[in-house]
């Protein structure tokens, strides 16, 4: 006879049940939230006529969905590129946007192109997910047990920053009428 799983518990992996407020389950919830936000951001930038960025958001969505698998199965994130950038390039380009894109750092404003504001909201949610991930993947001494996931989350916010910079600098071709 199979034992019933209590409603307040869920599977951490194929053999471990935990309470639903477990830090790793909270991290997975934030990944779910990011998936929804990526979809909304993708729709918004496509409607505003930025098809290349919409395609890059599709790529991001597929990648973010793979992070749950990496957590559940204990797999390393491994080598990756998004928008044509490696994690090292994302760090470099996001730190020196004027050098690479001719656009200095800026603070988003209500007068900015709405696509910038949608990407900025996505960036801030990725930052929140990164903090939840840090809580989920640190041991009692504060040592990060999944540095690959934490680095990945940090670089995803850098990717959003680069998208904002490129939008501000006019580096994305705009097609009138959206997609």
Can you summarize this structure?
Helices cover 60% and strands 3% of the residues.
Note down, in words, how this protein is organized.
60% of the residues lie in helices and 3% in strands. The protein has six helices and two strands, in the order E-E-H-H-H-H-H-H. The protein has helices spanning 23-47, 51-73, 87-95, 97-101, 114-136, 147-168; strands spanning 9-11, 17-19. Strands 1-2 form a two-stranded antiparallel ribbon. Helix 1 (23-47) packs antiparallel against helix 2, helix 1 runs antiparallel to helix 5 (114-136) and helix 5 packs antiparallel against helix 6 (147-168). It starts with 8 loop residues before the first strand and ends in an 11-residue tail after the last helix. The mean pLDDT is 93.
Output the keywords.
179 residues; elongated; single chain; 3% strand; 6 helices; mainly alpha
């Amino acid at each position: 006879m199979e034992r019933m799983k209590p409603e307040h518990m869920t599977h951490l992996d194929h053999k471990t049940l935990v309470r639903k407020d477990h830090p790793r389950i909270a991290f997975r919830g934030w990944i779910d939230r990011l998936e929804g936000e990526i979809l909304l951001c993708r729709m918004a930038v496509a409607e505003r006529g930025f098809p290349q960025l919409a395609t890059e958001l599709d790529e991001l969505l597929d990648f973010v969905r793979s992070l749950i698998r990496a957590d559940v199965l204990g797999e390393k994130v491994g080598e990756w590129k998004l928008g044509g950038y490696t994690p090292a390039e994302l760090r470099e380009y996001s730190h020196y946007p004027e050098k690479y894109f001719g656009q200095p750092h800026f603070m988003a404003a209500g007068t900015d192109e709405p696509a910038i504001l949608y990407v900025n909201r996505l960036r801030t949610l990725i930052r929140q997910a990164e903090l939840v991930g840090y809580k989920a993947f640190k041991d009692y001494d504060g040592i990060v047990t999944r540095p690959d996931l934490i680095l990945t989350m940090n670089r995803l916010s850098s990717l959003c920053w680069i998208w904002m910079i490129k939008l501000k600098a006019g580096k994305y071709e705009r097609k009138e009428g959206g997609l």
